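INFO batch 0412 | record 1 of 1 | parsing
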Amino acid sequence: IRQCSIIPHSKDADIGIRISDFRPELISAMEASGLRLSHRFGHLGDSFELSFDSPAGIKLDIFFFYTDSEHSYTWNGQYIRHCAF
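INFO prediction complete | emitting tokens
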């Protein structure tokens, strides 16, 4: 859903999970459900993201959120695959 309605041409779903709730078994459970891990970005300590593809052509992106206990805020990083600095 974007701008208060379903995007009819989208075949993508995004969800967010706290990194503290991540378990490595998540990947094998998703694969056992018929989803194929297509990308793994970042690392567990920063900007971790998993992307799965379904046989029906639906892509599922799982973004992980981090909590900074010192400053009491939650953040999500994003891995940039192609960039030049």
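INFO post-check: DSSP finds one helix and five strands in the chain.
INFO record closed
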